[in-house]
């Protein structure tokens, strides 16, 4: 029996950890079985129980993720406790995504609303298409953001633009989302999933230790002074230069061959 035998929405595709965060079964609203399975897998990845070199977030169905299941909210006997519990489950997942050292790629096709938009903002690279649309969706039902949107969105678009998008509950086209930096880039609508998988596979074949260092530097940059960041960069690049990936990359450059970062 393998780690993935009991996980219906998480699987390894080569070195890519694929997590389905929404399915057709619940109208592409956020699937909390997938989220919980994703949290379990990401914790195992961080602990070294399983091995993967990138993470891919996908929606199975017409949309990446159409937000929370509002009908379930309405039917809950204690709405506050119910929604708060769901938010806690989602936030465990977001914390694990943030802690994951390997690159996280999102294949954003169709709609990404509410928590779906939050997960787009949590990815390192998000691929969308011309028909991709994002929307906060919280004000439309009288709610406030979850999934880290109130933290991540201002860091992507700036605090003033984040206020506008959240308060007006704006529908953001794929083109606008790419311009604002919420999507990394656009491809054809029928190419989104394939391109996101290609990017995830390319990253999985790359210098993982370099990516770890890059993500750590970026994570601390918002709280560091320039001088502190320069010191961190000095320490980081010195470690990289002595690492197996750093040695292979430099040697390959000098020898005029393609670097082989497999396992590094």
From TrEMBL:
User: This protein's superkingdom?
Assistant: Bacteria
A Pfam family annotated for this chain is ECH_1
Looking at the keywords, is Isomerase present?
yes
Presence of keyword Isomerase: yes
Q: What are this entry's molecular-function GO terms?
A: isomerase activity
- What InterPro entries does the record tag this protein with? ClpP/crotonase-like_dom_sf, Enoyl-CoA_hydra/iso, Enoyl-CoA_hydra_C
* UniProt keyword annotations, A-Z: Isomerase
Family classification: Belongs to the enoyl-CoA hydratase/isomerase family.
- In Swiss-Prot or TrEMBL terms, this protein is called 2-(1,2-epoxy-1,2-dihydrophenyl)acetyl-CoA isomerase
Native source organism of the sequence:
Rhodococcus tukisamuensis
């Amino acid at each position: 029996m393998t780690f993935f035998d009991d996980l219906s929405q998480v699987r390894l595709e080569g070195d890519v950890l694929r997590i389905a965060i929404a399915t057709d079964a619940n109208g592409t609203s956020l699937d909390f079985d997938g989220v919980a399975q994703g949290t379990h897998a990401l914790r195992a990845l961080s602990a070294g129980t399983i091995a993967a070199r990138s993470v891919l977030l996908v929606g199975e169905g017409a949309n990446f993720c159409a937000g929370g299941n509002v009908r379930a909210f309405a039917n809950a006997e204690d709405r506050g406790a119910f929604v708060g519990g769901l938010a806690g489950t989602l936030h465990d997942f977001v914390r694990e995504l943030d802690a994951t050292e390997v690159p996280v790629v999102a294949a954003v096709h169709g709609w990404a609303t509410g928590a779906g938009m939050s997960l787009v903002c949590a990815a390192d690279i998000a691929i969308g298409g011309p028909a991709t649309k994002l929307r906060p969706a919280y004000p439309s039902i009288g709610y406030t953001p979850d999934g880290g949107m109130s933290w991540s969105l201002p860091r992507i678009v700036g605090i003033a633009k984040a206020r506008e998008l959240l308060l007006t509950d704006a529908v953001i086209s794929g083109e606008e989302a790419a311009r604002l930096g919420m999507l990394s880039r656009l491809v054809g609508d029928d190419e989104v999933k394939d391109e996101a998988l290609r990017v995830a596979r390319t990253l999985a074949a790359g210098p993982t230790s370099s990516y770890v260092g890059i993500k750590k530097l970026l994570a601390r940059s918002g709280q560091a002074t320039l001088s502190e960041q320069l010191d961190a960069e000095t320490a980081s690049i010195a470690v990289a230069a002595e690492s197996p990936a750093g040695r292979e990359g430099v040697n390959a450059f000098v020898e005029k061959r393609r670097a082989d970062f497999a396992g590094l």
